[in-house]
Structures are given as C-alpha cells and as structure tokens.
Amino acid sequence: MSRNYSDQDISDAYIYLLSRLLVLRQEQLDFKEGFKWNELRHRKPGAVDWPNPNLDVAYSEAWVAVDESSCTIVTVPKITGRYYTVQFLNGWGETVANINERTQPQGGGDYAVCLKGADVQLPANVTRVDLPVKYTRVLARVALGKDAAGAEALQHRFTMKATGAPKLPEIPATPVFDLDTLPGVEAFEVAPLALDSEADINAGMDALQTKARAIAEGIKDPQERARVDKVIHDKALADFAKASPKLGHGTVRNGWARPSTVGVYQDDWLTRSLVNEGGIWANTMDEVVYFKGGVDSTGAKLNGDHVYTMTFPKDSLPSKFAKYFWSVIAVDATHHRVLPNAHNRFLLNDATTPELGKDGSLTFYFAAEKPADAPDGNWLPTPRGQDYRLTFRFYGALDGVKDGTFYPPPLVKRS
After folding, report:
1. How far is 254 from 256, CA to CA, in rounded Å?
2. Which phi and psi (to 5°) does residue 172 adopt?
3. In which band, very low, low, confident or very high, does the pLDDT at 366 lie, cut at 50, 70 and 90?
4. Domains annotated on the chain, with CATH
5. Residue 60 belongs to what H/E stretch?
6. What's this model's pTM, rounded to 2 decimal places?
7. DSSP 356
8. Among 67, 335, 293, 291, which residue's Cα sits nearest to residue 180?
9. Are the beta carbons of 292 and 257 closer than 8 angstroms?
C-alpha cells in the first residue's frame, strides 16, 4: 500500500514532533516527583534534574494553569543589583513571557499572569501579564553571584497563587524515554494525542502536523509500522545527530556553536527540538546567549583524558560581553547532565575568582587534575575516559556576543 509521505517526510515529522515529546516527558517526570499546579518549588542551587541547567542561579519551578476565569498571581520581591527573571514556556518549549526589570521596569510587585482575553477581576496594584496559552512551565532564576545565601533568601520570597479554580489539563501519557534512547515508531503512536493537547503557536506548522497525523494513521498497518520504525532509526535519528554540532541552523567558529535562535523559534522547528533535547527550558537571546563546545581546535572531541586550555586576550575578557554574568560548565555528551567530580566544582565564572595572566589575558584549564601552572579558580575538573561538552553562557549579552561577531576562543589540547 502506497503512502502519501516519503522517508524525508518521516524524518522531518519525527524531529518536529520530538520537541513536544521532550516537554511532555519532563512534565510527566515533574508531576511524578510531586509538582502541583500553580505552586512554586524552590530548588537548592544545583539541585534541578534536567539537561544543561544553569548553575549560576537559584531556580524555582512550577507548572501554571490559567483559563478564561482564573489568573495566577506571581509575587516578585524587590531585587536590586542582581540578575533575576521569571520565565514562562509553553508545551513546545517556546518562551512566551519573562517578568523582570527589563520587561517590567517597576521591578518587584504582584503580577497577574492571565490567559489573553480572559475577563478576570484583579486586585488593585497588580500588573497583568497576558499569556497566549493556558498551561506553562515556569522557571524563576536568581543569580547566585558571590552571595549564594542572599540569592536563596530572595528565591524563597517569590510566591504564586491562583485567583480561582482553573480547569486543569490531563497530562498526556506519552513515552518517558531516556535521552540516550530516543523513541522509535511509538512517537507516532502518540502523535495525535501530543498535537491535540497543545497547539503550536508558530505559523507554518500545518504541513508537518498533517504529515505526522498521516504517519500515525499509516502505522496501524504492521508492514508500514515496521517501515516507519526503520526510517526513524536509519534516517531520522541520523539527521538529528548530523544537525546537532551546529545546533540546526546555527554557526560554528573556534569549535563553538552559536544557535541561530533560541527560546523563540518561529519556523525553526529543527533548532527547537535540538535545544529541547540538549538544554530544555532555554530562554531568549535577549536574556542569554548560549555557546556549545564539543571539540578542540583540531576538531577532535573533548575527552577527560586530555588537558585543554582556552585563552581570552586582555581586550576580550568574558566580562566584556555580559551585562550580568557569564559562566562555562561541562556536561556529559549524551544526557547533557553536569559532570560530578571529587572537587565539587562544576563551573567557572567570576565567583571562582579566575586570575589574569601577566599580560592581562585570561586562560581557563579543563583537565581531570589541576595542571601545575593553573590558578585554582581557572581550572574546571573533567572526567577521565569520558567525552564531554562545554556550555558557555553570557547573560545580558553585549557587543560581539550580542551581534554574533565574537565567539569564545578555541580549546587547545596541551596533553
């Protein structure tokens, strides 16, 4: 029986659908852990369990439900001289709002997060923030800086409460897979459920959704099911892996990949799925610019058996390119989880007080053991015998990082 879709259609529809399945996977894990709608969970720094977290901040997390008759009041404390934001993402991993002093110059106060168009009576002195969807994932971030205790105290002053009784969704039962074993044909078994439970707010996705639904119908035939599963494993997963080094339509320089977009994706469904897989809950480039590094200056994969250095010239130090803060972390190459080490050091940033060289340059060292010439605050421990990746973040990107003309220096293998 002929089908009205090609192998390439299967690959494209699969990768498109994956961004929704990755969010649903995390949603199911969250509620299994004990999340409740419209209740913030304050995390100890470093205690979140999803790919590529930012270890510079104290996180608070929630799932928020609003509808035509109910909003959610988010109380933000007065914060000065420290980065913070309250980020809202939809069921595809798209950032739909941020609350901070950049979007709300008045800063701290009460914010009513509402469904756009909802007719809800709100208390006085509450600022309304409209969302295009009923259900969102929330991450509140407060920068740790050199005062982690102060950040944690502020973190616990963020609160959240629904104004009424919003209708709560039934969370779709989709595959809860390991990130090193992405789903096969079973992804299309749940395609109608995944698509029907959350509209894609981006225009131009109808053709991909139509293909996904056609494939879901086609696999009811055992022979076609076997064909689709084979195409997923032979082609779709290979296409996805091939797109990973450049983060889809991003660019690579000095071995560092800079995505073309992040946080809001419009028609770039490929980048959205790659970001959801490698660093779910990414924010917009107005807030942060991410670089991914997985290779050294020769193009070889980074591995903990080697020592690498990267040097910023004195006129291009990381602090020049970040209004708020910068950092670099190491994560494993498969699950994108922060790598444990005996020294309990997981990132380099201003708080590790890296030392400048005599010429004013700044050199970082990545190695299993600290090189003899490496200042302690310049060294990030990495695991022996294991490939890894680095993530460099610039919060409040400035100058060349903001406009895409500057990339972090290459990693040079020393031994």
Report:
1. 5
2. -60, 140
3. very high
4. 7-26+175-245 (no CATH), 38-162 (2.60.40), 287-413 (2.60.120.1600)
5. strand 57-65
6. 0.96
7. B
8. 335
9. yes
